[in-house]
């Protein structure tokens, strides 16, 4: 386990490099906070006419 952390330290920021094509294919998961920012916007409800209710 120590060798894995040593290699990660040597690679630095390059350790987390990801090809652009793979970044587009993977889902973007946000684990912490700001859930309201990532929620889909609600669609406005269309008013229903009385004829559609009857």
Give a concise summary.
The protein is an all-alpha fold. It contains 4 helices and no strands.
Reading the helices and strands in chain order gives HHHH
Mean pLDDT: 77
Helix percentage range: 40-55%
Task: Give the distance, in angstroms, between the N- and C-terminal Cα atoms.
Answer: 69 Å
Query: Quaternary status of these chains?
Result: single chain
Content of β-strand? under 5%
SS element count, helices = 4
Structural summary, described in words:
The chain has helices at 2-11, 20-25, 35-38, 50-53. It has 54 residues and is mainly α. The model has no long low-confidence stretch (mean pLDDT 77).
Properties at a glance:
single chain; 54 residues; mainly alpha
Walk me through the topology.
Elements: H1 2-11, H2 20-25, H3 35-38, H4 50-53
């Amino acid at each position: 386990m120590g060798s894995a952390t040593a290699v990660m330290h040597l690679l630095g920021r390059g350790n987390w490099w990801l090809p652009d094509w793979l970044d587009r294919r993977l889902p973007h998961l946000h684990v912490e906070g700001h859930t309201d920012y990532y929620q889909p916007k609600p669609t406005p409800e269309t008013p229903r006419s009385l004829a559609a209710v009857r």
